[in-house]
Task: inverse folding
């Protein structure tokens, strides 16, 4: 059974204080790993897809990386508007199903 | 309208009511999904409609019934719900097995 574990559960940073969120996964035949951002009361917003170990993708202050066992979402010099819950999900084989982790709740303060 | 839309955004219903949630995608995708999101739990896939085929999570109770009349519209019919069914219900769409795009969700409260 596919499993996704995200850590930490919650993270509080000061503005400008860089950090990383972790997503560890166990899956048979990884097809893709997805990162989403979710604001309170809203649906998840797609950020990145990573397909193979060593792949990296960037968007503004966010950078996602992938190894054979885990993915990291690096946040460089965060701002208060980066506060949200960040979700990681994996897709295996030819199925469309996504298996999600429980997310990391990020709070960035001034 | 753009992206994925859901109505209603909020719904309060009694255990004996029957209601329906509606989802519409404006992205030209060929697959649609229903997810349930409860506090402190991961998003749980309930149903998938892909190229007019239906795939379902066998753990979903029969009081939830999906309907997909075409590739742009998806419904979730609700009847005889329980208080533990209170959650955020999210609709998503994708082109094949590519990334899924989510709607804003329907916050459901069952009294």
Result:
């Amino acid at each position: 059974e596919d499993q996704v574990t995200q850590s930490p559960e919650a993270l509080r940073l000061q503005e400008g204080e860089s950090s990383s969120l972790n997503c560890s996964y166990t899956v048979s035949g990884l097809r893709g790993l997805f990162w989403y951002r979710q604001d309170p009361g809203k649906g998840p917003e797609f950020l990145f897809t990573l397909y193979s170990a060593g792949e990296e993708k960037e968007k503004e202050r966010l950078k996602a990386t992938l190894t054979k066992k885990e993915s990291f979402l690096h946040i460089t010099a965060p701002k208060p508007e980066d506060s949200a819950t960040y979700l990681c999900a994996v897709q295996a084989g030819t199925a469309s199903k996504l298996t999600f982790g429980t997310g990391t709740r990020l709070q960035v303060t001034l | 309208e753009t992206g994925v839309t859901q109505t209603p955004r909020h719904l309060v219903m009694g255990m004996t009511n029957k209601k329906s949630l509606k989802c519409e995608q404006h992205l030209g995708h060929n697959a649609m999904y229903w997810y349930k999101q409860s506090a402190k739990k991961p998003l749980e896939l309930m149903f998938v409609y892909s190229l007019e085929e239906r795939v379902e999570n066998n753990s979903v109770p029969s009081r939830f019934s999906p309907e997909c009349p075409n590739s742009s519209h998806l419904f979730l019919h609700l009847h005889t719900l329980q208080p533990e069914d209170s959650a955020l219900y999210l609709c998503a769409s994708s082109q094949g097995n590519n990334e899924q795009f989510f709607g804003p969700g329907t916050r459901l409260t069952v009294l």
